[in-house]
Design a protein that fits this description.
The protein is α+β, with helices and mostly antiparallel strands. The chain has six helices and ten strands, in the order H-H-H-E-E-E-E-H-E-E-H-E-H-E-E-E. The protein folds into two domains: 63 residues, Arc Repressor Mutant, subunit A (Orthogonal Bundle), CATH 1.10.10.10; 161 residues, Chorismate lyase, CATH 3.40.1410. The longest helix has 16 residues.
C-alpha cells in the first residue's frame, strides 16, 4: 500500500479519516477481511493512533467494521433487512429460517406484556426465546409471549422443555387462523441479557421491534425482538429487496 496523507479540512480530522477509510473499504477490502493493525493504518494515513481509533470506532458504530475477539478488526457484511409495516397474516415460524428456537418456559410476564396480551397480572404464559443469525453472527434475540388460551391443546408429554418445547408451542399456535399483525420500532439500549446474547456491551444501541399477532379479534401472541443496531436496517413494503450500498461522502468541488 502507498502512503496517503490527509489534506487540511474544516471538519474533525477523525471524521475526514472515516470518509477516506470508507473509500478504502469499498475499493480494497472484502467482507470478512482483516484490516492491518493500528500502527500500519496510522502510518498509511499520516494520523495519530488516537485519531485512527476514533474513526474506527465510528465505522464500527455504523456497522462497517466488526471487532472480533482473537481475530482483530474485520470488514462487516451488509446490514440485514428487518421488514416492518407489512400486512402479512402469518405466525412466527417453527424453525428452519433465520430464527432458531432456543428455549421455552411457562412463567408470569412483565405487567406491560400482560396488559398487551389482555391477560391477568400474575397469569403465566408461554415465553419462547429465539435468536436470529446472519452470516454466522447472532444479530437478534427475541422473547415471544403466548397465552395459554392461544395454544389450548398443548401438552408437555412429548416436549417438556428446551428448543423442542419452543417448537411445540409454535406448531400449536399455527393451528389457529392468524388475522393480522402490527409492529412498532424504537431505538433502545442493550440490557445485560440482550448484551450477552448479542455479544455487545451493556448500553450498546439496539433496535427493539415489538409485534402483536391477532386472531379472533384479540392479541394471540406478542413478540419483543432486540436487534443489533449496527448490523440491521429497516425495510418497508416493497423496499425490502432494495440493496443499500455504502457510498463514501462526496464534497462539492
Amino acid at each position: 500500500m502507498g502512503t496517503t496523507q490527509l489534506q487540511t479540512v474544516p471538519e474533525p480530522k477523525y471524521w475526514h479519516l472515516k470518509t477516506v477509510l470508507t473509500e478504502a473499504l469499498d475499493s480494497e477490502f472484502t467482507v470478512g477481511e482483516i484490516l492491518p493493525n493500528e500502527r500500519e493504518l496510522a502510518a498509511r494515513f499520516g494520523v495519530a493512533r488516537a485519531t485512527l481509533r476514533q474513526a474506527l470506532e465510528q465505522l464500527e458504530l455504523e456497522g462497517r467494521l466488526q471487532r472480533r475477539r482473537g481475530v482483530g478488526t474485520t470488514v462487516a457484511p451488509p446490514r440485514m433487512g428487518v421488514a416492518v409495516g407489512t400486512e402479512e397474516h402469518a405466525w412466527p415460524s417453527v424453525g428452519g429460517d433465520a430464527w432458531e428456537p432456543a428455549d421455552c418456559e411457562f412463567a408470569v410476564p412483565p405487567a406491560a406484556v400482560a396488559d398487551a396480551l389482555e391477560t391477568g397480572h400474575g397469569e403465566a404464559v408461554h415465553i419462547v426465546r429465539r435468536t436470529r443469525v446472519n452470516n454466522g453472527q447472532t444479530v437478534a434475540a427475541e422473547l415471544l409471549y403466548i397465552p395459554q388460551a392461544s395454544v389450548p391443546e398443548l401438552t408437555g408429554i412429548d416436549a417438556p422443555s428446551g428448543p423442542a418445547r419452543a417448537r411445540a408451542v409454535l406448531r400449536e399456535l399455527q393451528r389457529r387462523e392468524a388475522t393480522g399483525q402490527d409492529r412498532a420500532v424504537e431505538l433502545g439500549s442493550a440490557g445485560a441479557d440482550d448484551a450477552k446474547a448479542l455479544d455487545r456491551l451493556p448500553g450498546a444501541p439496539v433496535l427493539v421491534v415489538t409485534t402483536r399477532y391477532f386472531a379472533e379479534g384479540r392479541t394471540a401472541a406478542l413478540s419483543v425482538a432486540t436487534y443489533r443496531a449496527d448490523t440491521c436496517r429497516l425495510t418497508f413494503g416493497d423496499a425490502g429487496g432494495v440493496e443499500i450500498h455504502h457510498t463514501p461522502e462526496r464534497r462539492a468541488s
